Fold this protein.
Amino acid sequence: MFRISSIKMLSCLFMMFVGLVACPLACVLSFPPDDTSEQTVPTSFGEFNRKTILVGGQEPATSFEQPAFIIFGPDGRLYVSTYTGLLFAISLNESHDVTNVETYKPVGGRMLTGLAFDPAATAENLVLYVASNNPPMLGVEDFTGKVSRLDGFGSGAVTDVIVGLPRSAENHMTFDLAFGPDGRLYIAQGGNTNNGAPAPGLFDNRPERELSAAVLVADVKSPGFSGVGDVEVFAPGLRNAYGMTWHSNGYLYAVEQGSNAGLGDRPTPDGGVIPVPSMKDTLEVLLPDHYFGHPNPARGQFAFNENLADGTPYQPPLKTFATGSVVTGVAEYTHSANGGNLQGSLLITGFVDHNLHYVILSDDGLSLVGEGILEHNFANPVDVAVGSDGTIYVLEAGATLAFGGTGSSKIAVLEPLGADSGQEESLALFSLSSNCTTCHMSLFDEAGNDVSIDAHWRPTMMANSARDPLWQAKVSSEVSRNPALKELIEDKCTTCHMPMARTQAVFDGASGVIFGDGFLDSENALNQLSIDGVSCTVCHQFEDVALGEEVSFSGGYTIETLTALPDRLVYGPFFNPLQDLMRTASGFVPVWGPQIRDAGLCATCHTLYTPVFDDQGNVVDEFPEQTPYLEWEHSEFGDVFGQNITCQDCHMPEAVGSVAISFFPQGLLGRSPFGQHHFVGGNTFMLEIHKSNMQTLDLMTSASELDATLALTLTQLQSDTADLALVYTQAGEDTLTVELSVTNKAGHKFPTGYPARRAWIHLTITDANQEVIFESGAVQSDGRIVGDDANSDSLAFEQHYDLITSPDQVQIYQAIMADNSNRVTYTLLNAESYVQDNRLLPSGFDKSTADSDIAVRGAAADDDDFIGGSDRVTYQVNVAGYSGPFTVEADLLYQSVPPVFVDDLRQSNTEQVNSFVGLYDSADRQPITVASAQTTVP
């Protein structure tokens, strides 16, 4: 059921079972729960009113804790099972408020899980089937699951119908129950293993059984039914299906929980095992006579997510959820409320991501045409039910289960507010990345390298462009310093950092808004689109319109806004994609689009101009905040000079050979060249902050994925960015002369992008006694450069040098902004020019013909040794009184977030600035060594 981080907490919680009430109790609601705050929730399916109707620990539900499942009974009451063994019957009024709560403990101290009312049950003749399991959660005997029939609530017979169902030593057990249209009872039965093979530790070497890891079926109403011996396997190969539901289309759908690496592997027919990585949670349509991927040797099933040896076809998931979702409950939204926009969709609870997901099924029910998050911020939602009037009931486990949840168990409701509310007239332009993950995962090139698009993209700065705390801090600082320009600033910054939400908002007649009740607010209807960052359906929907031209810069990309799903076009690099399959699965139609390989596509956001204002607040000019595309175009890498080595060539390196670009359907032919979705730059500092604060920043990635991106980033910095060489040394009578050459290997200036990044030379000379006699560019523990003039005066900066003779002279390659008084500034909207720009030029860059927007500024403009592709710096050091040989060591260091930049941020007392500063102060602020050189001078 749950992932490993839940196990210890769960084992402790279930020690509390002894001593709970053992008889029916009734209590009348005389006052509402404490947290009854209501709020209107705008969604793409109309507006809902959200409120909490029941809170555990409060009257009338003081014993309401550790809930498992929630369903409606034929009497109109809500029924909730709990792992404490209590069954709750909850009466509601027309306003969905609780009027009465009854409790019943029908099977003693056993843990109650699945609930299913007999299809013939009535309000006067309640017949309820319940699944139960022995406590505690871990280390329980096998074959201890059972299904019982309750005739009435609190009275009448309790009959064990099925006894001896399998039970894992871990927390897999008998979960959901559901009567099918055939009148038979379907049972979600967890697997005894992690991946099919017995394993020590949590799974206690327990093997799979004939009836484990499957959805089972039992004709419990047949007069001849005799118990567990008459139970059959309906859907084999389900590791741990927690919740399931029969849809009005006639199909049974289940949510399946993926395995954990290191807790047990897949078996082979010869008795061996094969290691398996962690697998993600999925949504499955349980077609008869199909196999769902989890091996079970007890049934002779060894296939892992592929067809069985006997020819039984493997059925791939309808949807794969993001890592860490842990999906549990599922229900069909059956009502026509709010114009019927949500009718027929499946609602799914994300236990760990705290979301209520929705998926829109195709007409045949066998694929998806849409998906997303309906509502957020539930406290470990474990199940969901839909009332007869379209009200949605979300069962929140709170702190009673795992994963560090807080608060009490609750029931929250979402009440539809009418057919004319919300955004039902809006055309949906985008889809979340999770919709693409289903198919574009588990990809390998011809060398066996994992080139999965989701795993490569998810930890990148692109994916986290909206969640990035530095970006949020900087935008909030700019707004605080220019409050009259708040709307302009936020709209401009969302264009490229929250492109889906901003584009959708503009289409709907609004603009990009970040703070307050803007996109970062979890209650905002566009929140999920916003925090999905620079996502799949952004870049792949860019039209081939004026790319590389000025009109497309600063977020001037073009996205078509006339076509509705499922006919929206997405562009890819290959001819003849499988259109029908992707159209059905995602709502988008793939077509060949050569612009996807065009550097001009990247230039839409990575060439950014900000407005320049006069003293009266009028826009009088534009400031080239970052211009890597224009720098590239003016180099030997750009198409102007014919080499045409594009952004994609370096930042999306080709895989080895061909790649089958989709996991589904199986057997696709490989395509080449395949650009890996690394999007690696040079910002290791922020990646480290992201990794150290994953939960705080609510990142939807993993530490291992971040580690992989960090490794790639470091490799790029140290292998493909710049070289350093000691090209000349001479020891005179009193003077040691050292000449360094720094070569820029990038296709644009280095450092590039945001004008805070800097690189510098750290040079050390020691004598024969290993005594340091000269050092320029040393680094303090807080990341400051010794000798940098900005340390003592924020309006100063270190000039460019051709000759260095003193330790307090440091060659720092950086861009320094200036305001309209030519004073140094770190506020973008105060910047009018660069007072210095001596960043290393790309090869072929002619500084004498460069446009003013990419020109060299300051003393480097007149330095004959500072040319396209390289710079030479000479050091002359007084060595009188010291004896050789002299050791010369030089490093080229790089820093993406300099202390002087953060010093300026600290002046803005905003929530986002204070949050980032806290993360910054706790981080390792030492620079990255890009290149090194060493020599000995006699």
